[in-house]
Design goal:
The complex is a heterodimer. By secondary structure, chain A is an alpha+beta fold. Chain A has helices at about 5-10, 20-25, 30-40, 45-60, 65-90, 95-105, 110-125, 130-145, 150-165, 170-180, 185-200, 205-215, 225-235, 250-260, 290-310, 350-360; strands at about 265-270, 280, 315-320, 325-330, 335-345. Chain A has a 5-stranded antiparallel beta sheet with strand order 2-1-5-4-3, sandwiched between helices. In chain A, β3 (about 315-320) and β4 form a beta hairpin. By secondary structure, chain B is an alpha+beta fold. Chain B has 3 helices and 5 strands; from the N terminus they run αββαβββα. The chains are: A alpha+beta, B alpha+beta.
Chain lengths: ~375, ~120
């Protein structure tokens, strides 16, 4: 049995069964085996019942009766175990107990409780990877279900932390690989999957993932934001309006130069359309639009999408100050994005004035002013 | 730290605040019921990462000390605390000239708390 087969399977204890029961299990009919399992359940020997059902599932792989009974017994077993662990929690404050509780709640489908104990495991010891792994896995499961990309970002964050704390944990490597498989990034997935594949080359789960990775075309980007944006667009692609390319007025180029020359401390002024194409630029610093088009486009998209997702509505403007520079990006209508990059001490009201004039040129009505 | 965040939330126009690490893990939060803490933390962090990459192709390091994101239904103010960020969510009509003075003052106290914890 491979590493992951044993990790994802139920425990096997059929050797503790009486000989007659073992005979039924290994040679009896499906009905007899199901009856044996039910008898064990009635006797409250849930762990043994599960071991019997595991063997039965291998003998009768297409049996719905066995599958349904297994699910029901597993849930009962996990719930019983939860009670025992809660009692243990009073005397054992370790992250491992909390992580076990998180896992059991996850298995019975109580995700909020699973998340609660996962976080408590982190609080109990933030140098242990256990809690981060549990929380990261919970987010990964939600990401798998096709929920918002923020779940994938959360999964990546927590699992990366877990990986930093224990770089050799194969489960963490596998979960990280899976995030990148969902994002359709086989090269990134391969970085985490490679060590697992080398250690367990014949494990059926590993072989399945290897096939999935092989089917994917190369991602052509190492930018994580880009990967998540593309994932979002694929998820909501059928509802999205295609971005329209913008037809710039003839005078825009000259005006842009005039704007830039009228302002002190400008390193670059850029205008991008809805397809993230550079429409207009002015760059006394000699920056090339080819170099900046992609990264500024990602910034424009991220600002718009994250504003909505954070619950503060339609994006308007972003102002960033670093030690030496200032960047202002202004949304002009639903598609255009205007970028100012310059000295950090440039007067904002002068930047506002240029943005108002640019907005008027491209037919937008309102520009948020700095206050 | 939670006390400072609650004090910050008492500033007129402020709807909530949180402290997140540079890699987007929440340290402390006091956000309103309409805001999901994990989402705001993760999305804030992803925005910071994107900004840092924004003009890196031309060799400029844009490591944010202060950011203000303005949207139709609110503003997000990020202040660098050294090893973490303070994220403040405000109403859209908050006057930054006056509001920022108070927010920065409390941010200095939160920064010193972060330094103590490290």
């Amino acid at each position: 049995m491979g590493f992951f087969s044993s990790l994802f399977s139920r425990s096997s204890q059929d050797s503790s069964l009486p000989r007659s029961a073992q005979k039924t299990l290994h040679k009896g009919s499906e009905d007899d085996v199901v009856l044996l399992a039910r008898r064990l359940v009635d006797q409250n020997q849930l762990e043994q019942a599960l071991a019997v059902l595991k063997t039965a599932a291998q003998r009768f792989p297409s049996s719905d009766v066995i599958d349904q009974l297994t699910e029901s017994v597993e849930e009962s077993f996990h719930r019983a175990s939860i009670g025992g662990l809660h009692a243990q929690l009073e005397s054992d404050g370790s992250p491992e107990i909390r992580a076990k509780l998180a896992e059991l709640y996850r298995r019975v489908g109580d995700i909020p409780m699973a998340m609660k104990y996962g976080r408590e495991a982190i609080d109990a010891d933030n140098t242990s990877p256990v809690g981060y792994r549990k929380v990261g896995r919970l987010y990964l499961e939600q990401f798998r279900l096709g929920l918002a990309s923020v779940q994938g970002i959360n999964a990546l964050r927590y699992l990366s932390k877990a990986h930093n704390l224990d770089p050799r944990d194969s489960r963490i490597l596998l979960y990280l690989a899976e995030i990148f498989i969902i994002l359709r990034a086989p090269q990134a997935a391969g970085r985490f999957f490679g060590p697992v594949q080398r250690a367990f080359p014949n494990d059926p789960h590993v072989i399945r993932l290897e096939e999935r990775i092989r089917e994917l075309p190369n991602e052509e980007t190492s930018n994580i934001q880009d990967l998540f944006l593309r994932h979002e667009q694929r998820q909501s692609g059928e509802h999205m309006q295609p971005a329209e390319s913008f037809e710039a007025p003839v005078e825009l180029g000259d005006q842009f130069r005039e704007f830039g020359e009228s302002l002190e401390g400008v390193s670059g002024l850029f205008l991008l359309d809805g397809e993230r194409k550079m429409v207009c630029e002015f760059s006394p610093s000699g920056w090339s639009s080819d170099e900046l088009e992609d990264s500024l486009g990602v910034l424009a998209d991220t600002s718009r999408q994250n504003s909505q997702r954070m619950g503060i509505g339609t994006f308007n403007r972003l102002m960033v100050r670093s030690a030496d520079h200032m960047l202002v990006t202004q949304s002009l209508g639903s598609e255009l994005s205007f970028f100012f990059i310059g000295d950090k001490n440039t007067k904002l009201d002068e930047v506002d004035s240029i943005m108002e004039r640019a907005a008027a040129l491209v037919g937008c009505e309102k520009v948020e002013a700095s206050q | 730290m939670k006390q400072q965040l609650e004090k910050l939330n008492g500033v007129p126009g402020v709807q909530g605040s949180m402290v997140i690490t540079r890699d987007g893990i929440m340290v402390a939060a006091s956000l309103g019921p309409n805001l999901e803490e994990d989402a705001v933390a993760a999305l804030s962090s992803s925005l910071v990462l994107t900004i840092k990459r924004g003009i890196s192709p031309v060799g400029v390091d844009l490591d944010p000390e202060e950011m203000i994101l303005t949207a139709e239904e609110g503003k997000l103010i990020f202040l660098d605390l050294g090893n973490a960020f303070l994220v403040v969510v405000t109403q859209p009509q908050l006057r930054l000239a006056s509001g920022l003075v108070e927010i920065r003052g409390i941010a200095r106290k939160v920064r010193s708390l972060c330094e103590m914890q490290v």
